[in-house]
Design goal:
- It is a single chain.
- This protein starts with 27 loop residues before the first helix and ends in a 13-residue tail after the last helix.
- The chain is mainly alpha-helical.
- It is built from two helices and no strands.
């Protein structure tokens, strides 16, 4: 006897067994691709870190060499300034000696302070520095 219901037919079954693998699990090939992707990513990050560290080291060396160059140039400029001041001082001294003036002896010149005389009466300031009595006006100092 033949049945006409295809649901009970052996060729048309509702359950088909899988051909040796379960489709809910990822395949071996996709697992390998995932692992390879992870390894390549880690290696890429490591290589990038090495390159950045190498560039950083080169930049630090460049900065150190520039700082040394700048320090040398600043020292040279300072030496040139000192040389120019000495030359200027010698020129002034030679001109003063040509006029017949003698440089002061050691201890002869004492600097009291560096302030300006008060604008109200500069004569009082000059007499105070010179140690002159305010009641007597010397002929060389005029108000």
């Amino acid at each position: 006897m033949t049945t006409f219901n295809p649901a009970f037919s052996p060729t048309a079954t509702a359950y088909r067994p899988h051909a040796g693998r379960d489709r809910s699990q990822p395949s071996l090939m996709s697992r390998l691709l995932f692992i390879i992707l992870i390894v390549v990513g880690i290696v890429g990050i490591a290589v990038t870190y090495v390159r950045i560290n190498e560039k950083r080291t080169n930049l630090l060396e460049s900065i150190d060499s520039l700082e040394n160059t700048i320090a040398i140039r600043n020292k040279e400029l300072n030496n040139l300034r000192v040389t120019a001041e000495c030359h200027k001082g010698r020129c002034v001294l030679m001109q003063a000696q040509a006029l017949g003036l003698q440089p002061p002896e050691l201890g002869q010149v004492i600097r009291l302070h560096r302030s300006e005389p008060p604008a109200s009466n500069p004569w009082e300031h000059e007499t105070a520095v010179a140690g002159v009595n305010l009641g007597i006006r010397p002929a060389s100092i005029t108000p």
